[in-house]
From TrEMBL:
NCBIfam families xref list: PRK05303.1 (NF003676)
Subunit-structure text: The basal body constitutes a major portion of the flagellar organelle and consists of four rings (L,P,S, and M) mounted on a central rod.
Record flagged with keyword Kinase: no
Family as reported in the entry's similarity comment: Belongs to the FlgI family.
Function according to Swiss-Prot or TrEMBL: Assembles around the rod to form the L-ring and probably protects the motor/basal body from shearing forces during rotation.
Compartments (UniProt record): Bacterial flagellum basal body
Matching Pfam families: FlgI
Taxonomic source organism: Janthinobacterium fluminis
Name under which the protein is recorded: Flagellar P-ring protein
Keywords per UniProt: Bacterial flagellum, Cell projection, Cilium, Flagellum, Signal
Cleaved signal peptide residues: 1-29
Length: 374
């Protein structure tokens, strides 16, 4: 039998806690800003190539990184310094780097951005270096920012008596407020007095509920679903009124539809995570010395004569699991995969056994959910 400290037992304990939190309660209302985003309100990635100088002998080895030498020669020529023909530069305090950052939505010229500086050569460390003025370009090739400043490198490195210790990456650093925005990205927000909401996950039911909630709050015809992901919303014409409208729109509470049934299993640790939409159908599985049988038992409840009630049919799962034809665990509850997993753990099934059984149940059509193995 699996011990309480086994990886499978720990994974199943967490699984059952998640299942208990999911099963009893209904859909919980969430803010619209957590379910959808406004089209056009997004970040834009920026990137630039530059040089870091002032390193203490930890720069690129120029014999193996010729682009560093070419960059230095080109920079000196732009500054009016012409090197004699055939000059061989031996640079130890310079490193070629890539500078990356993200341009926030509605960023304006003069705004400061944090940048990440990463070595692209064989520099040992960027600590103590200074990034020279580096243009930051977007996907369209236009310059949207300029970066420059002293690099802060996290982590430490030490060397003594022929041994070295390095913690964290010394070839990556960060400059807080190291870039200045030079160009703003044009925004079409509110064009033609409409905005578009894009759901984070495509779901027709959730899109319908969002439209209904918006129309109930702001009036009929305010919102209309274009498909299962995009919703068109009528907005005020004035910028101040539009901002206030979007603020109220983001705070609107919506109950999202139940997600599609899905089971995720980590084959290395035996961790199993499922949502409340997972259901099981009748099946019988034999795997090694394990035998799993799942059946659905229907119970009919009839009202008393002339009581005016209705006949109610309830279904419950009957799960029969055996090992070595010895110990038998019989569970009667709602058709829940958590019951099967718990019973398998109780008789000592390994993560490999559990994985094989789940795959067999999926192939047989008993596991009505998407099975994802990571």
């Amino acid at each position: 039998m699996a011990t309480p400290t086994s990886p499978l037992a720990r994974a199943l304990s967490a699984l059952l806690l998640c299942g208990a939190a999911l099963l009893p309660a209904g859909a919980q209302a969430e803010r619209l800003k957590d379910l959808a985003s406004v089209a056009g309100v997004r970040q834009n990635q920026l990137m630039g190539y530059g040089l870091v100088v002032g390193l203490d002998g930890s720069g690129d080895q120029t014999t193996q990184t010729p682009f560093t030498v070419q960059s230095v020669v080109s920079m000196l020529q732009q500054l009016g310094v012409n090197l004699p023909q055939g000059t061989s530069l031996q640079l130890k305090n310079v490193a070629a780097v890539m500078v990356t950052t993200a341009l926030p939505a509605f960023a304006q010229p003069g705004q400061l951005l944090d940048v990440t500086v990463s070595s692209m050569g064989n520099a040992k460390s960027l600590r103590g270096g200074t990034l020279l003025m580096t243009p930051l370009k977007g996907a369209d090739g236009q310059i949207y920012g300029m970066a420059q400043g002293n690099i802060l490198v996290g982590g430490v490195g030490a060397q003594a008596a022929g041994s070295s210790v390095q913690i964290n990456h010394l070839s990556v650093g960060r400059i807080s407020g190291g870039a200045t925005v030079e160009r703003a990205v044009a925004s079409a927000l509110g064009e033609n007095n409409t905005i578009r909401l894009e759901l984070n996950t495509t779901d027709f039911s959730t899109a319908s509920r969002v439209v209904q909630a918006i129309n109930n709050q702001f009036g009929s015809g305010t919102a209309a679903a274009l498909d299962g992901r995009v919703i068109r919303v009528q907005s005020p014409s004035g910028s101040d009124q539009r901002v206030a409208f979007l603020g109220a729109l983001e705070a609107l509470n919506v109950s999202p539809a139940q997600m599609a049934a899905k089971v995720i299993m980590n084959a290395r640790t035996g961790s199993v995570v499922m949502n409340q939409a997972v259901t099981l159908d009748s099946c019988a599985i034999s795997h090694g010395n394990l035998s799993v049988s799942i059946g659905v038992d229907s119970q009919v409840s009839q009202p008393n004569p002339l009581s005016g009630g209705q006949t109610v049919v309830t279904q419950s799962a009957q799960i029969d699991i055996k090992k070595d034809a010895g110990k038998v665990l019989l569970l009667k509850a709602g058709a829940s995969l958590a019951e099967v997993v718990k019973a398998l753990n109780a008789i000592g099934a390994s993560p490999q056994d559990l994985l094989a059984i789940l795959q067999a149940m999926k192939a047989a059509g008993s596991l009505r959910a998407e099975l994802e193995i990571i």
